[in-house]
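Collaboration report, partner site 2.

Our partner group contributed sequences for two proteins of shared interest, and the home lab folded both. The records are reproduced in the order in which they were received, starting with the first partner submission.
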Amino acid sequence: MSYGTYYVDDYSGTDYAKITAAINAANTAGGGKVALSNRTYVISQSIVLHKKIVFCGVGISSEIVCSADVPIIRIDRGNNDSSYIEICNMTLSYTSMNNTNSFHIEADRPLYLKIRGVSFVGEGRNYAGVLTWNASSGSRTQAISSESEKSFMTHIENCLFNDASIW
């Protein structure tokens, strides 16, 4: 099955509205590639990804800068099927390093999440990088059960963590 490509800059509105519209179009089609251009996108709300979405830039010059203390990208299995999502070839950063409560990517028990070629800029933040956790437990420190989540897997490849981590 072949899915289409949805170019963020083909949509209108704020950067957040454009990204959300492209993701919604891909989601309605059952999946697809949501493509960022070679520029900086400024958002103040979390981008929510759905199943079978490839969210991709053209390299580290495709940058998403968040001006609020929220996850830049959120994958929430409680609200949608989070399987087979890929995030690639972009930079994720925050405008203010004084806010420290959210990771760049927060994922609730993602199924086959693939992150490659992403630069995480987290200098000065207490929490930065990638957090995968079981939101139904209510605790970020509780391990994901191998019995209940046998297909849980995150693949991280060729990423740069600048004062950031995988948790």
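Second partner submission, folded after the first:
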Amino acid sequence: PSDEPAEVADLSEQVLVLSGENGGFTEEELESLSNDELIELAKEKGLEDILVLDADGNLLNRDQVIKALVESEALEEGAMQDAMQELESLSNDALIEIAQAKGMEDKIILDEDGNLQNREELIEALVEGAAEAEAAVKELENSGIPSTLYFAFDDTEIDEAATRVIIEHANFMQNNPNVRLRLEGHADERGTREYNLALGENRSLSVKEVLGLYNLEDRVVVVS
């Protein structure tokens, strides 16, 4: 499509329910929330499965939800610490490569000889960027936007329904600059392996071409 996106999801005014020094929350803070706020927070964290609601949508397991949210926060904090330790074990050159691959060149400070000057700040930025991307992906999963497109037999053409889905993903990526996309092209068992690998790749490239209209091609990886 050459037109502007048909639907744009503006996340610029989205407000977190709670935000402590580390972006988390305590059990006491959760206790102060209403049931509706707890429900929304559980959905943001991808914990819909634990919600028990009555016919009117009222929360029936408040204590269990609060416990699950606290445990979720602890797991996220542990994951961030693991990521921090893994990055700290890398060389400066490796950190620079990772930051460049993630489109975070503006976070890199080098001297005249190309040596990294802000190692600790860069590691923190990489960890924070990964956490933001993970949270955004959870939000995408909860939004109901499909992540699978279907093609006609032996075809690579993007139809109207698929175009609408791609536009939704383009809007999402524009609103979440830390998110990168892996496009996997598939084919069924008919045909030779070589032919199907080419078909899968061309299907991925068709999707990437549409995303390129939104200047997102640099954040897309194609595989077959």
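Feedback sent to the partner group on the second submission included the following. The radius of gyration is 21 Å. Residues 5-23 have pLDDT under 50 and may be disordered.
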